[in-house]
Structures are given as C-alpha cells and as structure tokens.
Amino acid sequence: MARIPVIVVIDVGKTNKKIFVFDERYRIVYERSARFIETSDEDGDPCENLESLRLSVYDSLREVFKKKDYEIKAINFCTYGASFVYVNEYGQPLAPLYNYLKKYPEALSKDFYETYGGETAISLATASPVLGSLNSGMQLYRIKKERPELFAKIKYALHLPQYLSYLISGQFYTDLTSVGCHTQLWDFTKNEYHNWVKKEGLAAKFAEIKSADSVFPAEFPGNNYFVGTGLHDSSAALIPYLVNFRDPFVLISTGTWCISLNPFNDLPLTDEELKKDCLCYLQYQGKPVKASRIFAGYEHEMQLKRITVHFGSDTMKYRTMDYDSLLMREIIDRNEANPVKIKLEDHESAFGARDLSLFATDEEAYHQFMYDLVQLQYLSTSLALKGSDARRIFVDGGFSKNAIFMNMLAFVFPDHEVFAASMAQSTALGAALAIHSSWNERPIPNDIIELKYFSVPQHQRS
C-alpha cells in the first residue's frame, strides 16, 4: 500500500508545544501535544526549559517516523517570537532561553535610547514600540553590555524557530518574519538591519537571511525530506488567508495576545500609533504588515478567575455560553447611558474596575466583560484598519469560538463583514503552506478555511 505524502510541523507556543502532520490536502492526520514545566534563569526568573524542548522535538519526530503509513516530505516550524537561543559554533546553547517578559534594566534602556536618537526615532524606524525584553534585539544588546564574556562566545543569536530548524537541518539561518516582529532590529524605512545593530556589532551575530519558503536537506544521511527555516507564529497564521483571499482584509489572530494584522496597509507608523502598541510585522514574502495588539487573552484568563470565584461557577461553562441578545441590549443601553472612557494605553478593558456584586448573575457579568473587552478590541483593530480599504474582518483562534465576543465584534463594526474563521491550526498550517511548492505536488485547496458570518439583528442596533 502506497504511503501518504505528509509534512510535519512543530508548533511551539508559550503554553502548549504541538506536533502536527498534514497530508497533501492539508488535513491533519496526526497530532500530539505536550506541556513543560518552566525552569529559571540565573536571576531566578522563569524561562523556557530549552533542553526539554530540544528532546521533545526529537522524541516527537521519532514517533512520526515510526509510522509506516506516512512518507515524510518536509518538516517546518513555527513558534512564539521575541526569544533568542544563543549558540556557539557547534550549535550548543550558551545561555537560557530568556523570557520575553523579563524585566529590562531602566538605566541600560535609558542609555541606549539616548545614544541612538531617542525612543521615538528608533521605534518609528524599526516599527517597534518600546517593549523592553519583548524587543528581542534589546536582549542581545543587554548581553553585550552586562555579560561581554558571553557575548564574545556567541556565534549566532537564533530566534527560536530557526534554532528548532537547526536541530534538524544543521544549518544556521535567519528568517525575516522573526526579525520583523517588534525586535527593534530591522529598519523598515531602509529594509535592512538598523544602523545601531551594525554599530554595536550585533549584525555579526546573525546568520544569513533566508526567505520563508526556503528549504534545506536534513542533516542526517539517507533522509530525503526537506527542512524549512521556521516562522514567527503570528506571521505564519496570516499565510492561509493571504493564499486564499485577494480582497483586502484584517485578521484578528486571538490567543494570549489578540493581534490585528492588516497586510493591505503599508502606511508608515506614526508616533501616536506606536504609543498605542501599534507596530509592523514582516510577512513571509517580506512585505510589511500593519498590526496592533492587546493582551486580551491574558485578561480573559484573569477576569474569568475573578468571575468564577465570585459566583462559584466553573470556567468550562463560559466556553460554550450562548449569546443572549436581549441581555446584551440591556448592557449596551446601560453603558451608553453611563459610558466609561478607555484608552489603549491603559492596556486593559474597563471590566477590572467593575464591582461584581452589581451583577445579578454570572451570565450578566460575563456579557458585560465581553462588552468591555470588545470595546478595547475595537480601538486596537481600528488602528490596523485606518488608511486601508479592508472591509472584511476574520477572527481566528480561541475568541473565534466565543459567540458573545463575535456578536459584539459585529456590533461595533457594522460597516464590515465579520467572520469567525475555522481551520486546522492556522499557525501550523501557515508554516506548512509557506513551503508548499517544495513538498506538495497538488494545488493548494480552496476549502481549508471555514467561515461563519456574524451580523447583529436590527433590534440590537436601535
């Protein structure tokens, strides 16, 4: 019996680490998930367990290779961004995989921006708000200044997707989707590394840049599959939409962060947009993508705990809670009569300041929370929409399955078509599609994205 040609994708999130196997029609034929206990860096701050991750990649692939039904044609990777693995010339890690939420020294930050023209100048050129360790370039700068002996030993600083790719290909490369995600490394005005990167000698620590559709042979003799360079997960999630839709759209990719991505907006960032956490990514074809972000998934997790503790309810209940249009109409009327002014700069919705004892039921409290969260989402997505002709909004990830969130989103964007998008793991699928021509002889299917349209009844608009 003929074996099925497949591609394997390793998808590493902050919480879950997954492996997916797709057939030529991009259907998942195998998947496996794992979670690791974090370890600590030298300062006692939590960080990724790099050794566990490395072993998990090998173990997961070993399991797939045992399956005689599959003919593995390619392997690719997608992971969260803003995380470097620092390796020596033999590819051995020299330091922990530092957490992008690690506190950044204020004095060092102040000295850097004073040296290179100020926060605004650097941020505008690199399309990156000032985010401390979330600007991964600043992590390497910190090592140079605080630990010069370590900096001298570093052969390459590899973003996490490229380190995972190296484990299989044995090749060191840099990928633009990782460099172009709020790193403060890439000068979007010149389409090259920023001048500060060269002056500080950081550019020498980065491997050769390869396009996201590049593939390489596996390191191990006798294997005839290709290995991709790996991609930043938010950029990977955009690929299925770019492949399937030609009319302008905005994608709200939801998870821990809710990121509004507009690949049809090439207007330069303004200082005001930067202050509101607006930035630019580089998509897999090297073109800029206007994006805006809120920490909505994290806030949802925190406020859900608050609601369940107060009402004695179960968090599972809210995954499938029905949208109550009459209850939401009451909430809309109440909030329009007594509006609460919010700003993106506050980085959270108005719900955290609300007294839960004022709500009769947990359903009412949760509908109010979704109202508040969508008000924040509206401000964020509007930044990405501004100046473009996009009239479609696609939502994927966890919030796309939340009927209350989706109906409220349709309410606040009455002049746009709002869709919940459903597909088989968009980030992993995007990583597979990025190297489609290298492993798949079939045309890309036109049904890999399932859309559900949301509109608000007329009585709710009155």
How would you describe the overall organization of this protein?
The chain has 462 residues and is of the alpha/beta class. It has two domains: 4-229, ATPase, nucleotide binding domain (Nucleotidyltransferase, domain 5), CATH 3.30.420.40; 233-462, ATPase, nucleotide binding domain (Nucleotidyltransferase, domain 5, 2-Layer Sandwich), CATH 3.30.420. The chain has helices spanning 50-65, 106-115, 119-126, 136-146, 148-153, 160-169, 176-179, 195-199, 233-244, 271-275, 296-311, 325-337, 362-385, 403-412, 426-434, 436-439, 458-461; strands at 4-12, 17-23, 28-34, 39-40, 46-47, 70-79, 84-87, 156-159, 174-175, 186-187, 192-193, 209-210, 215-217, 226-228, 231-232, 249-254, 258-262, 278-282, 288-294, 392-397, 417-422, 450-454. The strands form six sheets. Strands 1, 2, 3, 6, 13, 14 and 15 form a seven-stranded mixed sheet that branches. The chain has a seven-stranded mixed sheet with strand order 18-19-17-16-20-21-22. A hairpin with a 5-residue loop joins β18 and β19. α9 (233-244) crosses α15. The longest helix is centred in the last third of the chain and has 24 residues, at 362-385. It is globular, with a radius of gyration of 23 Å. It starts with a strand and ends with a helix. The mean pLDDT is 94. Residues 6-195 form the Carbohydrate kinase FGGY N-terminal domain. Keywords: Kinase, Transferase. This is Sugar (Pentulose or hexulose) kinase.
